[in-house]
Amino acid sequence: MSFRITSCHRPLAAAVALALFSGLPVGAQAQESVEDRLSALEQQLAEVEPHARGEEGFSFNTYARSGLLLNNEGKSAPGGPYLTPAGSVGGAVGRLGNEPDTYLEAILNYKTVADNGTKAHYRLMIADSTTSSNDWTSDDGALNVRQAYVEFSNLAGFTGIFENASIWAGKRFDRDNFDIHWLDSDFVFLAGTGAGLYDVTFSDSVRSNFSLYGRSFLDFPSDPDTTEGTSDTDNLILTANNYFGNVQWMINGMSAADNDERVVGGVTEAAETGVNTMLAYHGDSFFGVSDGNFKVALLHGQGLGAEVKNIGADGNLYEDAVSTRVAVYGTTRLSDSWRLAPMIMAETSKDRYLDGDEYQWLTFNTRLANELGANFEMQYEASWQVMDLDTQGYEGRADVDGDYARFTIAPTFKPQVGGFWNRPEIRMFASYSTWDDELNRYDGGDALGQEDFGGSQWTFGTQMEIWF
Amino acid sequence: MSFRITSCHRPLAAAVALALFSGLPVGAQAQESVEDRLSALEQQLAEVEPHARGEEGFSFNTYARSGLLLNNEGKSAPGGPYLTPAGSVGGAVGRLGNEPDTYLEAILNYKTVADNGTKAHYRLMIADSTTSSNDWTSDDGALNVRQAYVEFSNLAGFTGIFENASIWAGKRFDRDNFDIHWLDSDFVFLAGTGAGLYDVTFSDSVRSNFSLYGRSFLDFPSDPDTTEGTSDTDNLILTANNYFGNVQWMINGMSAADNDERVVGGVTEAAETGVNTMLAYHGDSFFGVSDGNFKVALLHGQGLGAEVKNIGADGNLYEDAVSTRVAVYGTTRLSDSWRLAPMIMAETSKDRYLDGDEYQWLTFNTRLANELGANFEMQYEASWQVMDLDTQGYEGRADVDGDYARFTIAPTFKPQVGGFWNRPEIRMFASYSTWDDELNRYDGGDALGQEDFGGSQWTFGTQMEIWF
Amino acid sequence: MSFRITSCHRPLAAAVALALFSGLPVGAQAQESVEDRLSALEQQLAEVEPHARGEEGFSFNTYARSGLLLNNEGKSAPGGPYLTPAGSVGGAVGRLGNEPDTYLEAILNYKTVADNGTKAHYRLMIADSTTSSNDWTSDDGALNVRQAYVEFSNLAGFTGIFENASIWAGKRFDRDNFDIHWLDSDFVFLAGTGAGLYDVTFSDSVRSNFSLYGRSFLDFPSDPDTTEGTSDTDNLILTANNYFGNVQWMINGMSAADNDERVVGGVTEAAETGVNTMLAYHGDSFFGVSDGNFKVALLHGQGLGAEVKNIGADGNLYEDAVSTRVAVYGTTRLSDSWRLAPMIMAETSKDRYLDGDEYQWLTFNTRLANELGANFEMQYEASWQVMDLDTQGYEGRADVDGDYARFTIAPTFKPQVGGFWNRPEIRMFASYSTWDDELNRYDGGDALGQEDFGGSQWTFGTQMEIWF
């Protein structure tokens, strides 16, 4: 009998052939070798795979948007969700077709697992923001590091209520921040440099997070006579987030030593301490009436805590400042091809920067999407905001009382339609906005009333948005 | 009969051994398991492999150069391909041994493939440029974001002439830019923020690309009386690239509303619109006479289009500005160890910035390489430029008429010799340049005539260059 | 006999089954196919694995620290290892609990192996430094590129004493720099832009490295009369490192043309050239008495070489400047759970910046760690520095003579305890420092004597530190 092994250059195959003709049982020896090689491959691949999946070693995350926002003369139009007078105190309007910038976050992660099972995650975020359309923006850009922290989890030495806990230190965005995407507004946004402890787990449904964040209050005026002296301090924020099932209760206390030496509006009565709190519900349906989700939150703060979203970030707040905000949004499907996402956010604050001032605003916004193909959907956004701002002349701002409305239509391409959070998207858009002339008087660095931006506006543009 | 399985810890091997002695056919059961494991491995590896290859997930690209350029006293010498008076209007000379900077582009990509097959590619480019040799350059560097865009291809919902099309939006270098490497000059360089559609395919040999780019004209003087007012506008560029086999026809139209309010040379007659066009041929031999490649292009532009390379980037152009440029280069082998790459670029423009000005220049350059070992080659570059610039006093520049010559010899190490585009390279170089004294008078921010740089020069240095 | 192949969709399994029943020997044909698939998998995996391991393609490295350093009022405290008067001339004290900043290095590598075996390694380092605790630091940060170089090794064309050599060019930290971590001080730190040759190997125990580095001396005052003129030059540094077993002998010569035109203290007598040298021993035990390591070095420099650590980085040095430094540290275990790392560094220099000045300082530091669990250890650091600085009024600095002491206790979490170099770490710390009042008078940009920092101090904080 003639038998030839072709294209076999390995000892293994020779051994198999040998075994076949030697009368020894086939397989044991050969399978052992195959087995060894399979095991080796499986083990190697088990080591390699977490790297490809981003579970170990380096991984890359991003948020980015970039596009053109033009008026009907083909020149850049002002824009952004905070473009109205209310924007200066947190009152965002819708962002679709309303963003003039290139903003991006490049997030570089590095993850390791120690022999004892403890996981470590280093995260570096570099961010940039510019309204220049040019490719070379070394003079106009703002490249900077927003996060650089380490977080440990699965700690081998942690037991009991700390068994699932993780600890972190460095500069970061707090893990529990969450947002209303269409408004480019977080419910709460807490960030700074510090350390913390997450997921102290008391029971299946009760867990708590505790952190200390520092923020720098830099170069503020501190001499009411000369208005030339400046000073610095740190705002230290103790934060706790407590989860009871779907309910979240956040409480923040903060203190900035000597911030009462800060000169605001000619007087030194800035807040030195503050507290704020948020009660939130994270719903896993659309208000119980259909599939989707909803989130609702009530926020209240005093003193340095009267900036209820950007926790501890505003050092100009008056010692008696009080703010209350409510925010709610939900997403659902109206049909196989229509999606709906309405939201409301409103705030009232008084004695905010100066004794006797009063700020009130309410934003209503709805995002609507109509899926029309594998890669295409029409998106619509309507936004309406009403405001009554009594500034007492703070920073030269005039009192205003009026409303603002915007409607946008945006033909949108995406790799796969299917949800509000599917990205990337490539959009074109046309937007019509109109507002009360009175709002042009505010003059608080907001867009309304700027040159060529005094009344009703058509704007046009194109944009990409991505996150992963 | 005695039989022992050694170093076999898996059930599989035991099952095989069992089968052998039980009289059951060997292989079916065992092979099934081996088959399962092989299939699992093959599938896992098929998921992992595209990540290692950079076809999915994160990947990294780079262009970078860094080195020293010194005069014969050991001090930094001015340099760069645009160092002559003609450089101020695009007339580059050779770059070998003529670059004083560290310039780099770090390109972070992230690619995904949706379930429906649509591909998405996010690209972020961070770039830096500095002439400081120090390691800490926070004051001298220029770190900025030059690209941040998303491109979709293989779109599931695209058919017909759009079946192979891709779409993009964000900030980017246009995909169809191409260059003469030895001159550090693109034939065309179009970049900005916008959106576009690539590869609309009409037939096997005919396809077209269409894009809209915006560029920012920032802070230009706009009041002829006080010369203190500044203004801004956007230059919107519509571009189309049409390919007919090896022939490329590009056409650009652009408009910058109110750019005619710009003050240039004391008058407000800057162009508000422009057009330009390029007819190019991409040859896949060395002008038909030997293996290699060649590219030739004729460019013409008017108004804002009279800057025919950096499309739409120069807002100072006069309303009647006209430019015509021709460029050609090729590469070939002279023998197994000698490579040759000659090129010519020339431009004439008039009424460019001021009524009546006239700029003419021509550059001839040849790069020659002699491969002398696995990792070593000698590189030579000769460059000659003649120019006749009649500026009408624009920006205080004097009229000049003369020529400039440079010759460089560069012993070069590389991982593997073999072609003009093999990188990285590590070079040493010595360069001799000489020019007409008259060119020192131009004073347009160019190097010629600067302190210690008034006549013939020897320069020396070392440099790395890499791209991947 | 009934026989069914289940869940087998590949021709392979069918072939096996066929072979079984055809009477042909089992295995040969089947094993060949399994063999082919195994071989293919092994080959694919061999290509993929180096990417996951960072041996080919992209990889990511980091050094980073970020934290809060607060005084007992909750405000940021000055800090850093160089916070004393002696710090202005290199006299660092301990860093534990003494760092107020976020400092990070993001290192992006790309490695390739050519067909001929030559390896290339591109390294880009982006670094940032800020003392702001805020997340948005575009005004306070310092993002810049510190390294961008290419290094070739395993060169196919190199033989003899160059067989193991590698060559590099670009901007980099020299490969032979080494440090005392607890002091945040290198023994030598050489960095700049240039090129070099590493690992010229003369015998098993003798090898040498040669490099040329340029550094930029930028915008220094160069007109003693008006004090308005500024000038630039380059400091070119030739460096050689020679290793004889555990002994390292480094020698640096440097020259900065026209640096003698620099005005320092009203006169133009700055050094134009310099030399320095280091003799070091890298011990692989704790001074021969126990397991661990130690390093000891004697450094001496003159003229521009009188800055013996930051080689060639200080252009203000006087033409007759002379410095001598000695540094020694070691690490060992005192027991299973205690680790010890003592060090001493001292320097004397005279005629450093002005004729007749004299600087002397000595730092003693000990780091002690007590491992108390899988993830936890207590760290202690004691630092004592004595200094006698006679400045001759250089840069308005007063003469000072006194000492400084600091003690820090730092509860520390890490993924796995086990050594001084195990990172990441998350620490809390409390630190007490005290110093002679006289040191407050120095006024050389150092922290001592600043507002709220005039005497003994308690400081507190938290920090993460990581490298990989």
UniProtKB/TrEMBL annotation, chains A, B, C:
Main location: membrane
Compartments (UniProt record): Cell outer membrane
InterPro entries to which the protein is assigned, alphabetical: G_neg_Bact_CarbUptk_Porin, Porin_LamB, Porin_LamB_sf
UniProt KW keywords: Cell outer membrane, Ion transport, Membrane, Porin, Signal, Transmembrane, Transmembrane beta strand, Transport
Annotated membrane topology: Multi-pass membrane protein
Signal sequence interval, chain numbering: 1-30
Pfam families associated with the record: LamB
Coiled coil: none
Record SUPFAM superfamilies: Porins
Domain of life of the source: Bacteria
Family statement drawn from the similarity comment of this UniProt entry: Belongs to the porin LamB (TC 1.B.3) family.
Name this polypeptide is given: Carbohydrate porin
UniProt organism field: Marinobacter azerbaijanicus
